[in-house]
Amino acid sequence: MLIAALIALTLSGCEGAFTPEPVVTKSSDASKLVESIIYVKAKNGICFGVTGVGKLSTGGHYNESQMVVVVDCGKVNL
After folding, report:
1. Which of 8, 36, 39, 66 could form a disulfide with 52 if both were Cys (CB 3.0 to 4.6 A apart)?
2. Backbone angles phi, psi at 6, to 5 degrees
3. What is the pTM of this model?
4. Rounded to 10 degrees, what is the CA torsion of 8, 10, 15, 19?
5. Where are the chain's structural domains?
6. Which residues pair with 63 in a beta bridge?
7. pLDDT for position 6
8. Per residue, what are the HEC states of 18-33?
9. Closest CA to 76 of 42, 47, 45
């Protein structure tokens, strides 16, 4: 019971740590990200813009994320 109370107290004190916060993106980083987008057409005929980012943490872990958005095939010449 004591352990459950300690866990609850700890988590309630960390509530702000789990709230998403906006991140400011430098315009140079935004330009690099947009310029890295490639456009692909899926087998079902839907077109997508796809890009990814990767980051090596100070702990030596590499994290990679892909971003996919639906685009108009005609506007990207697919």
Report:
1. 66
2. -65, -40
3. 0.63
4. -110
5. 25-78
6. 55
7. 59
8. HCCCCCCCCHHHHHHH
9. 47
Which sign does the torsion angle of CA 6, 9, 12, 14 carry? Answer: negative
Token pair, residue 54, equals 């990767």
- pLDDT tens-digit readout, 22-66: 889 899 999 999 999 999 999 999 999 999 999 888 888 899 999
57 within 8 A of 63, measured Cβ to Cβ? yes
Q: Using an 8 Å Cβ cutoff, are 70 and 47 in contact? A: yes
Q: Which two tokens stand for residue 67?
A: 């971003």
Amino acid at 62: Y
Residue showing tokens 């109370």:
5
Q: How far is CA 19 from CA 14, 16, 35, in A?
A: 9, 5, 30
Q: What are phi and psi of 34, to 5 degrees?
A: -65, -40
